[in-house]
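As described in the Methods, two query proteins were run sequentially through the folding procedure within a single session, without resetting any intermediate state between them. The first query and its resulting structure tokens are shown here.
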Amino acid sequence: MVIKDKIIPIIDSSIKKEESMIVLNSIIDLIDLSFTEFESTSIIIRGCVIRNLSLHTSWFKQGFLLEDNIILNKVIFEMGGHNDEPICIKSNVFRDFFSFFDCQFKELLIVENNIFKQGTNLFCNMHTEGDSFGIKMRVNNNIGILDSERID
């Protein structure tokens, strides 16, 4: 399914019925993918303005691309990952904090060219019990604090 150039009130876990979900150049009030295992759905969100992005306990088995977006809220991606394909977070502006607490990534995690205005705990949680980032991680050219100890 492809959605392009729309104003969208909500995208939720019902998209897991799709083989792929591509959202381009849209304004989205809420993306709530929390507490969902996307076993066979690949997800691409590119060029959007997102008021609320909720990823708590989202497992992206077939990968996830978040690119060229502006995200306005605090993003909680705690207990997430569990990916069999790459998760790419590239060229976004995060106006609030982004939490990777207790994430486990089985395959490549790419975090590049983002602006984390209020920071992230990406590096702070890399070596704590429960977090598993492994050696399959590529982090380059990000702006903002990447090792914040903030846990809210």
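Immediately afterward, the second query was submitted; its sequence and tokens are:
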Amino acid sequence: MNPKDTNITITVDTNGINDQNKNQKVIFSDDLGDPQQPPGHPEQYTSTVYKDQKITWTAYARNGQTPITIENIKKDGGKVLMKDLKRGDGANKYTAKIKDGNDGDEENYSVTIGLAGYEGMAGSNENGPIVYLGHKVAYMNSYQNNVWNILSDAPFEIEGVTGYNTSGPIIFSGNRVAYMNNYKENIWIEINPAPFEIQGIAGENTNGVIVYSGNRVAHINYKQGRWVEIANAPFDIQGIAGDNTGGPIVYSGNELAYMNDYSINGWNPIFDAPFNIEGIYGSFQKGVVIYAANQVAYSNGPLFTGSSFTEVANAPFIIEGISGNAARGPIVFSGGKVRYMPINIEKTWFTVSDLPFDTKTITIDPRLRMKTGAR
């Protein structure tokens, strides 16, 4: 058979699904004739993939009605076959490309499925985190009080968030962007649509936001009301941080680049990260925090070639998202759990109240496996 793309279907029986019965409620299959996963044993499912081809996961509810979101797909051991892992063209899709490999190589990975929409986090340890789930947004501006404050529903199903509690959150879905800069008024303000379907967002409400799709990047200042595209990034972007004061910081794998002067309009490489990054937050001025699985690191000093990252104690769970900065430390979450670490205490994660909504996320475990090679 000639090499071709692999399309994996994830069928979810949403009726009563929970952490105890999830393996019995999820079935994997693909379009290459691989044996269907035996019920209750996702660890026995192996899908064939071909080097230099694409792989797409699509999740469906067995009842045909419940919305399904693929929150993330994470590598988890074995050979590194996948690259460019990212959301697909729908909430229930995820994609990756297959790197070179040898016949019989296998890679483990896990899939996190959501039944209540995407979830994510923004904010910093200076003023606390901001979280979202579906249309819902909440913030905590005091660890001492340890209370989540729920805002009015967003004008759309949220796909990502950025911002800080000092000036409020910014959210996106598709090419739509909205912000809230006054918690007392509690009103979302939608701005002009971005010039492309957004894959990630950074920035804050004082100076506007930055968005990306593929290797395209654009920024906007609310007063000017006009999106400005800058030079394409040197790679297909997997995540973004930064703001319009210091410029965007982007990554792919363990490579990073930044642009801190829009007038020069050129990208500068940054020292490589100590692992393949799965998420990033922060700014050029205060540095960034990054994660992969349960590993977390922060940048040392200004973001230019010659600096480095310092790894801190592993988080107590597999991380789904991160916020914060290198100056004051990271905040991480998984499902409904949130932990933070002051940067001067690199070995201790502190607990705050669980998220104020039911995240309804399921991570399939034991892990799944892939192999590469001719049939």
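The radius of gyration is 20 Å. We note this only descriptively and draw no conclusion about the first query from it.
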